[in-house]
């Protein structure tokens, strides 16, 4: 789960690199892809042999098509390739690291595999490149959906937790209310018991021990007959 939320560094890639072989007189088609950027790059600059490409140069036939989105693509087209078009082409997005590809202009058809510096360069069919690009887009879309699903699950868990907390608070409030009522009843009962005790003490003190006669309303009654 943690891997889904880890922020990836932006990646810049030129399809078919690091070296390309182009037939003389054909069109140089370089596609630069910017992946995992937090937002589409405001600008994408192309340079040839460390010189920024001038699209209004007398050379002519140079155009650029850039499509911005989750996966930004910048396509450089150089028509009617000549030997001077050989060299290093660099794609530099404004919010990602640059990447470079080396272009070789060759006469006639070149074999599917060529040796350069001891390494074998295999020509990858364009259909496979498009398939890989489509797979990358679908994979990115899948991970975004998984991330949104995790966010919804967390939101629901937070909502359920809030409801449980509110219910527990209400239960505590009801318990506290019952406790206060019980305490009030106990206090009233204690007061009533105290009053009853005082009443009994008052009645016992109002008894005349000499004449063994009760006192009525706080006065002793004399029941002896007058002497004749």
TrEMBL record:
InterPro entries: Ig-like_dom (IPR007110), Ig-like_dom_sf (IPR036179), Ig-like_fold (IPR013783), Ig_sub (IPR003599), Ig_sub2 (IPR003598), Immunoglobulin_dom (IPR013151), Zig-8 (IPR037448). One of its GO terms (biological process) is synapse organization. Residues 181-192 have a biased composition (Low complexity). Residues 10-102 form the Ig-like domain. It comes from the Eukaryota. One of its GO terms (cellular component) is neuron projection membrane. Residues 169-180 have a biased composition (Basic residues). Pfam families: ig. Residues 169-211 are annotated as: Disordered. This is Ig-like domain-containing protein.
